[in-house]
Design a protein that fits this description.
Layout: H1 2-13, H2 18-33, E1 37-44, E2 49-56, E3 67-69, H3 73-81, E4 85-87, E5 109-117, E6 120-129, H4 138-164, E7 177-180, E8 182-185, E9 188-195, H5 213-238, H6 244-256, H7 262-271, H8 276-293, H9 297-317, E10 331-335, H10 340-345, E11 351-356, H11 364-372, E12 376-378, E13 392-396, E14 401-404, H12 408-428, E15 445-450, H13 454-461, E16 467-471, H14 473-477, H15 485-499, E17 504-507, H16 534-539, H17 541-554, E18 561-565, H18 571-590, E19 599-604, H19 607-610, H20 613-617, E20 622-626, H21 627-635, H22 653-668, E21 673-676, H23 678-681, H24 683-692, E22 696-699, H25 704-712, H26 716-726, H27 732-745, H28 756-767
Helix pairs in contact: 1-2, 1-4, 2-4, 5-6, 5-7, 5-9, 7-8, 8-9, 12-28, 15-17, 17-18, 24-25, 24-26
């Protein structure tokens, strides 16, 4: 059964559209289980009805015509219960619903299993049998459940592809197709999608027609000629080193490139009006599907050869393709995996939003996007990228959501948000030089998180009082090797000079987890619990020492440097790090540099550190909470994983209790404590942190004016009462609602961005 399942998934994955995928499913499952009927009913989001979308065994004319209400019949029962139903005599069941147009009165045995993806019921997969004596056994039920679970993602992807194309399951026009991911950079953008795909990857080639068939044929012909010459050249070069049977492999490749073989089929597709790359993709995937379905292992392996040839041909077709992309005035850049180079290709002033299937809020592109103020959504695992080219898109970087083909109402709703944001930012500019102080004169320092010089101007214009977190890994990420001491020194000097005499807190190199260096790869099964942060740099003191030396030399004459150690879980790590820092300090002094010993602090981002605050504070000058990672570790949730991201919540009672404890323990031994992370940049979160006693809040520059405005408008006594009230609650969602309500009552409703529920309500109202 495993081999049947594997080949079924492969075949469905390469289907061109949803209908083809469903037809493959019913045909292959019916054959594998030896049943008379296999059918798929999909739940249409627009009507909330189950529609018969494909069948093998019932009357074909019923496909698309038969539909059931959400809880109607046995199909509705399977969907509403979200579990299999296995009946020996289905017509005798009280929920049985007979449709004469299907001809199903002949079949008595019934097994239905729900198709569920990310907790959403997509449909029901049904098998039926004529004999009333047959009850599908446990093995058959388990097989059908396995098929359903494996295919749910494929069906969701195919369904989304059709919806983005503008059609619902019933063939009616579809609008406001939404996808949920992870917020990468805050803000809202409305623009046209431009898909940028990695070179020589057939899977992400977009489907699109061509108006110039002759040009596409010429391009493809040139690619075939170039690949043929490449293979002949390699074969000739290796001729003396290969035996005749090995040399014959090159002849196989060349025969595949003959006019009456694969190139001929691609050319026929182009003549049907498909651009060369799309035609190549269709033919290659069809070949691969046929070979992989074969029982002969030798022939199965030929699929690898076909895939390799396809990539070679595509590589030649794509030469110069990306350089000639047309970028509209309001470009939303879309890719399987965005890179900084892709951002740089968009003409200045035309990039309004970013959408990436892969990546996280801590990826280099997300950091760049926040620095540039470009709304970004990452981690959109189910999105059919190649369907978004040229489509109007709304990017909601606050909620991590995008909408394709928005209705006029939804577009108007989000345009109002954009306008309000612009107006709000202009109105807050007057606060730039005013202190962040409550009405009862409690002072809090507002700092920025940064890693790029492009952040500096924005940070200073928003009134930042220094840098609470300088991500030193950014200079490492934009190189193809470790930067030298002199290169690092120049990077650090720029930041220190820009903010002098205000403090600049530089975190030592924090790689690992989801921050990788291409030239220093770390392959681990569980990177967040692995070799990262201080663990890496203490194991490689040559990296740590060079970095600290560069920091110290860069601070000469400014003396506003502070050093922060990431991912501390043991006192021994602090002591070892301090030993190395003091050693470098004395060496640099002996070299003649007139520098002061910088303050050294630790990041509290591992639960173990929460319970060692006093011991840590005895050894360092300050503490700073990394709230993003601390929340992630406390809740055992990877915030960049879309499957569980909804469980990540900064207002979780456990997180708030931990933050209260950290502030109290740090102050009990007389050490300052700050916090950097999303919670600090959220106006409501900032109020709670101020009430807890945090001395400084560090955030993205864009969040700073709103946080300052809120803190300057309330008393600390009011904030402490709010904190005491929410600490009695046990649900993060209720806590967040209470904080939002308090802000609204205080006159700050305009600072609260509408959530998904509001946007979806507008969307649903527009559809209905």
């Amino acid at each position: 059964m495993l081999s049947i399942l594997r080949s079924l998934v492969q075949e469905v994955n390469s289907a061109r559209d949803l209908q083809e995928a469903l037809d493959i499913i019913v045909s292959r499952v019916q054959k594998a289980m030896g049943t008379e009927v296999c059918s798929v009913y999909l739940l249409d989001p627009a009507t909330n009805r189950y529609i018969l979308m494909a069948t093998e065994g019932l009357y074909r004319k019923a496909v698309g015509q038969v539909s059931l209400a959400y809880s109607e019949g046995l199909v509705g029962l399977v969907g509403s219960r979200e579990e299999p139903i296995n009946l020996e005599d289905a017509p005798s069941h009280p929920r049985y619903r007979y449709f004469p147009e299907t001809g199903e009165e002949r079949f008595r045995s019934f097994l239905g299993v729900p198709i569920i993806h990310h907790r959403r019921v997509l449909g029901v997969l049904v098998v039926q049998q004529r004999e009333s004596s047959r009850c599908f056994d446990e093995g058959e039920e388990a097989f059908l459940v396995t098929v359903s679970a494996q295919l749910a993602g494929v069906i969701a992807h195919s369904e989304a592809t059709g919806a983005i194309s503008g059609l619902s399951l019933t063939g009616e026009e579809a609008h406001d197709v939404s996808f949920n991911g992870v917020p990468g950079a805050p803000g809202v953008a409305i623009g046209s999608g431009v898909v940028v795909y990695p070179s020589a990857d057939l899977d992400v080639v977009p489907e699109k027609p061509t108006d110039d068939i002759d040009q596409e044929l010429a391009l493809f012909g040139a690619s075939v000629k170039a690949v043929r010459e490449d293979i002949e050249r390699v074969a000739k070069r290796l001729a003396s080193q290969l035996r005749p049977e090995e040399q014959a492999l090159f002849d196989v490749y060349l025969r595949m490139l003959g006019d009456d073989a694969m190139p001929g089929e691609v050319s026929n597709k182009i003549r049907e009006g498909i651009w060369a790359q799309g035609a190549l993709k269709q033919v290659v995937q069809q070949y691969i599907r046929h070979f992989e379905m074969m029982d002969d292992h030798y022939l199965q392996e030929r699929a690898v050869d076909i895939r390799d040839l396809g990539r070679r041909l595509l590589s030649h077709l794509q030469e110069g393709e990306q350089k000639h992309l047309n970028y509209p005035e309001r470009t939303v850049l879309v890719s399987e995996e965005l890179t900084p180079a892709m951002l740089g290709e968009v003409p200045k002033g035309q990039l309004v939003g970013l959408v990436s299937v892969k990546g996280s809020s801590n990826s280099h592109v997300a950091i760049l996007a926040r620095a540039m103020g470009v709304p970004t959504v990452m981690g959109l695992v189910d999105i059919p990228v190649n369907q978004l080219d040229g489509k109007e898109l709304i990017v909601d970087g606050f909620e991590g959501q995008i909408f394709a083909s928005p209705s006029a109402d939804l577009r108007s709703y989000y345009q109002a948000i954009c306008d309000e944001e612009d107006e709000l930012i202009r109105g807050l500019e007057v606060l730039k030089d005013k202190p962040c102080e409550t009405t009862d004169h409690h002072r809090v320092s507002l700092l920025v998180n940064t890693g790029l010089m492009t952040d500096v101007v924005r940070s200073l214009s928003h009134g930042a009082e220094g840098i609470g977190l300088y991500r030193t890994e950014v200079p490492f990420m934009i190189k193809d090797r470790f930067p030298s001491e002199q290169e690092q020194r120049e990077y650090y000097r720029e930041q220190l000079e820009a903010f002098a005499p205000s403090p600049v807190t530089m975190r030592t190199l924090d790689i690992g987890g989801d921050k990788a260096l291409t030239y220093f790869p770390i392959q681990e099964e569980n990177p967040f619990l692995g070799w990262r942060g201080i663990r890496v740099t203490l194991d490689h003191p040559e990296i740590f020492l060079v970095q600290v030396r560069a920091m110290l030399k860069a601070s000469e004459g400014l003396n506003n440097l502070q050093i922060m150690l990431p991912m501390i879980s043991n006192i021994s790590e602090v002591e070892e790090s301090l030993h190395l820092i003091y050693r470098v300090y004395h060496e640099v002094r002996e070299e003649g540099y007139d520098i002061h010993m910088p303050k050294v602090g630790v990041m509290v981002e591992i639960p173990a550190a929460v319970y060692q605050i006093r011991e840590l504070a005895d050894r360092v000058d300050f503490l700073s909470v990394g709230s993003n990672d601390l929340t992630q570790y406390l809740l055992a949730v990877d915030r960049n994983n879309p499957r569980v991201a909804q469980l990540y919540h900064s207002y979780h009672p456990a997180v708030l209790q931990a933050l209260v404890r950290i502030a109290q323990d740090a102050h009990s031994v007389g050490k300052p404590v700050g916090i950097c992370g999303e919670l600090a940049g959220d106006p409501g979160g900032a109020l709670l942190l101020m009430a807890m006693g945090y001395d400084s809040l560090s955030m993205n520059a864009a969040s700073l004016p709103k946080v300052k405005s809120v803190i300057r408008s309330v008393s600390r006594e009011w904030a402490i009462q709010l904190l005491e009230d929410v600490l009695l609650l046990d649900s993060p969602h209720v806590i967040k609602s209470c904080v939002d309500l308090a802000l609204r009552n205080a006159g700050f409703g305009r600072y609260l961005r509408p959530g998904k529920s509001t946007a979806m309500a507008v969307s649903e109202a527009a559809v209905s």
